[in-house]
Amino acid sequence: MAVTTTTIKITLKLEYALPAIGDGIPFSGIIDDPELNTTTMVDFL
Amino acid sequence: MQHHEIVVYRFEDKTFEVKLTDANDAVIDLSTGFDNVGIFVYNADRSILAKYSRTVTVGWKQMDTTNQATGVLSFLLDSDTLKLASLGKKYIEVILRKTSGSVPDNKYDSIVSNYLFTLKQSVSSVTTLP
To answer: Is B40 inside a domain boundary?
Structure first.
């Protein structure tokens, strides 16, 4: 079903340069606090 | 940091169009150099309300990448998701995986997070209309 929506436009400005390759977070859990909401763990992309 | 409130009501369908810029206000070209881009919409307690992937992946919603070369990503937050969400402030976090043969598939850079909107209950959704 086609959904007609209004659009909210925002700009996110990075405060720093993009990280270099390999600096990233090893990403298999929730955003930044594994103590919270272990039932909402995200999957690998 | 934006301080004005963006209100979304329960049972609405909202499209968000997010433009990513660097510290000098130049747009970030997402069309090359990145294997994937992910977006989280999350609650104040950091539980996740919705998650979007640029690539088709089970469990992730798709984002619209039509204008990614100019740093713009769009995603739909639908009423099926919002009708179950807790009221209050919602936040966004964007993650990137750069293109590199040596970077594991699950290695991402978290590049920005910010307030996104405030979810409210509309008065018309809690009463019987004439």
So the answer is: yes
Q: What is the pTM of this model?
A: 0.79
In total, the C-beta contacts within 8 angstroms joining chain A to chain B are 143
Q: Domain range spanning residue B75?
A: 7-125
Q: What average pLDDT does this structure show over B28-55? A: 91
Residue among A1, A3, A11, A41 with most chain B CBs within 10 A, to mutate: A11
Nearest to A30 among B48, B100, B113 (CB): B48
* B116 inside 8 A of chain A by CB: yes
Q: Maximum distance among all alpha carbons in chain B? A: 63
Q: CA B97, CA B108: separation in Å to the nearest integer?
A: 5
Decide if B13 is inside a domain.
Answer: yes
CATH code, domain carrying B35: 2.60.40.1930
How many distinct structural domains can be found in chain B?
1
For the complex shown, is ipTM > 0.85? no
Q: Are B52 and B68 in contact (CB under 8 A)?
A: no
DSSP state at residue B70: G
pLDDT-derived band at A36 (thresholds 50, 70, 90) equals very low
